[in-house]
Amino acid sequence: MSSVLYDTPGPRAKVRNLAYTAVFVVLLALAGWWVLSAMGEKNQLEADKWTPFVTDGQIWTTYLIPGLLQTLQAAFLAMLIGLPLGALLGIARLSDHAFVRIPVGAVVEFFRAIPVLILMVFASALFVQSGVDSEIRPLYACVTGLVLYNASVIAEIVRAGVLSLPRGQAEAARALGLRKGQTMTHILLPQAVTVMLPALVSQLVVILKDTALAGALLGFAELMTSIRQISANYSNVIPTLFVVALIYVLLNFALTMFASWLERRLRRAKKGKGGTLPEQRAGEPAGGPAEKDVAGAADAPTS
């Protein structure tokens, strides 16, 4: 089916697309065969390297589950702080007052331009100088870096989502006498949420994955840190990497499914609030009371 961005392929294009697909499948199969062959040469496919994840519960209770809980804790705190902070920064960037818009824009651009790992390291050094307990310092540094960076990105997502709405929405709100804050909270943001949701979910996935950066330099005992501990005790680096990667995939998949459910729920709620027009009687103007008043005023005799 043709569209603005896509033309229905003809006979030659279909053959060419099938050929490209076949070549891609062959290359993918060769890459998979090469990976399995390399793993076999390193004895990483032997059963004794994979069965501990099924038979030895100590791997889960000592390494994987505690690391997973630390990852979820850091990600949850970063989301809990970063989402409202990013929304406030995004709304502030839309302010009509230059003394609010310009400084907030500078802050957002500054933290958005710095790699999140540098923010974590800087926060850790700051907490060392402040005398924060060494046991909770890695968690604080991880959350601080994630909040500063991702709140700045979320601010841009919020700003772009609000600006993507038709200008008539804000104009209609002003015509009704709503203030700028009321227009933002009651008219623009509820509509922009469904527009922003895919980008917000992508950023939440980034937050979850970036917790692994804190384990590399800060000693944060998150999920990736357990890989070194498990491989040192069981000599199964590749199986451990595979299992940890699968855990990340399941976490991100669950987050995506939740976001999809939330988006469907918001869309159904929006349709429910919209309602339907009342049935039109013969001889009556279409629409609600406002349209009827306008029609009656137009038909009234003029003096």
Automatic annotation (TrEMBL):
InterPro entries membership: AA_ABC_transptr_permease_3TM, ArtM/GltK/GlnP/TcyL/YhdX-like, MetI-like, MetI-like_sf
Protein topology in the membrane: Multi-pass membrane protein
ABC transmembrane type-1 domain residues: 68-259
UniProt keyword terms in alphabetical order: Cell membrane, Membrane, Transmembrane, Transmembrane helix, Transport
Keyword match NAD: no
Region (Disordered): 270-303
UniProt key word Cell cycle: no
Location(s) in or outside the cell: Cell membrane
Superkingdom to which the source organism belongs: Bacteria
Transmembrane segments: 18-36, 72-92, 104-127, 147-166, 187-208, 241-262
Pfam family, one: BPD_transp_1
Family as reported in the entry's similarity comment: Belongs to the binding-protein-dependent transport system permease family.
PANTHER family the record matches: AMINO ACID ABC TRANSPORTER PERMEASE, MEMBRANE COMPONENT OF AMINO ACID ABC TRANSPORTER
Protein name (Swiss-Prot/TrEMBL): Amino acid ABC transporter permease
